[in-house]
Specification:
By secondary structure, the protein is α+β, with helices and mostly antiparallel strands. It contains 7 helices and 16 strands. A hairpin with a 2-residue loop joins strand 14 and strand 15.
């Protein structure tokens, strides 16, 4: 297995991509080098049946490589395309593994460093009012991993006709059997129809089965206006992996997202003229579909609290945090007691 190590010309250390400086930087002596970036245009690939059939997930066996820094043996899973030695910290970009499958079209570089990630986590945790107080001390023994996660993006022109029923509310006054009058809201329903034309740009779909979760959705979206042509320089010092969700599956997810978007647009159109909407039916499809394969930056950590693991993720571009945390039973009980006391006091004062 061939690998690339970015050696520092100053001290011989390993150069890593620095999120703050946006360049390769040696953590030992501070020497820096500009990223050897590709100045070309990021290509949009036409989405064809052949492309969906050919870009499949190939499960590779775990391999072993020797660290050039300390000689230790490093296990590399079938999906990993960048790795760090656990013993000496040397970073490797496994370019040949990337080329065996699919070279990314673009990359969103890390914009915040690990120190910033820690600060954002601490700020986030302070707002978890129901978390145990000692959780912060437990977390300080852990740390974040920086990883480039694979993503598919899709563009498409949507053209749909829709039919629906729009409802207008009116209030009627009626007299009951007891002689009293009362008001009731009645909805009159009318047939309506229309047309939706919309261009969907860069619909983002995770290309990793490890990161297709509600937790990961919590740190989206990523600003793809900062997408740059791919260069392995951006990966040095960070972890990276190949896609484990194939193009066809990713496209299916994107269609679901776009369908929801078209339905929302149709319902919004009806609501501009009516009070309510129901029975929306769509007919149409998508054209001029294209895709890109990109890498996006994420910080991830898993910490243990009383024998249970909790995961926290941070968007490495925007700093948005999404995570799981334990709840303090004592705090919950205290809140319930306070609410009961407040309710009892309110009832007492109301009856006085």
């Amino acid at each position: 297995m061939s690998s690339t190590v970015y050696k520092c010309e100053g001290c011989g250390g390993v150069m890593e991509f620095d999120a703050k400086a946006q360049c390769l930087k040696c953590p030992n002596c501070g020497n820096s080098e500009n990223v050897k970036s590709n100045d070309g245009v990021i290509e949009e690939h036409t989405l064809t049946i052949d492309a969906k059939r050919s870009i499949k997930v190939e499960v590779k066996e775990t391999q072993t490589m020797e660290c050039k820094g300390c000689g230790a043996l490093i296990e590399v899973s079938g999906l990993e395309t960048a790795k760090k030695c656990l013993y000496c910290g040397s970073s490797y970009v496994l370019a040949d593994k990337q080329e065996e499958t699919l070279i990314p079209d673009g990359v969103v570089p890390f914009k915040i460093d690990k120190n910033d990630a820690h600060e954002r986590f601490n700020t986030w945790m302070k707002k978890r009012l129901l978390a145990p107080n000692e959780l912060k001390n437990l977390y300080q023994r852990g740390g974040f991993q920086s990883i480039y996660v694979p993503y598919w993006t899709f563009d498409a022109q949507a053209s749909f006709n829709y039919t629906a029923e729009g409802g207008r509310d009116r209030t009627v006054t009626r007299t009951g059997a007891d002689g009293k009058t009362y008001r009731k809201v009645v909805t009159d329903w009318y047939f309506t129809s229309g047309h939706i034309e919309n261009f969907f740009d860069d619909i983002q779909v995770p290309a990793s089965i490890r990161y297709k979760s509600g937790l990961f959705k919590g740190i989206e979206p990523f600003n793809l206006k900062q997408l740059l042509p791919y260069s392995p320089d951006y990966i040095s010092g960070h972890l990276s992996e190949n896609y484990s969700v194939d193009l066809e599956s990713g496209h299916r997810d994107a269609i679901g997202i776009m369908n929801d978007g078209v339905r929302f647009m149709a319902e919004s159109n009806v609501r501009r003229r009516y009070d309510r909407v129901r029975n929306v039916r769509l007919s149409g499809g998508y054209s001029n579909e294209t895709y890109k394969y990109i890498l996006i930056p994420v910080y991830s950590t898993t910490y243990d609290y009383k024998g249970k693991n909790y995961t926290v993720m941070i968007n490495g571009q925007t700093g948005k945090v999404s995570g799981l945390y334990p709840y303090s039973i004592a705090k919950i009980v205290l809140i319930v007691i306070v609410l009961i006391i407040v309710f009892c006091l309110f009832m007492y004062l109301s009856n006085s």
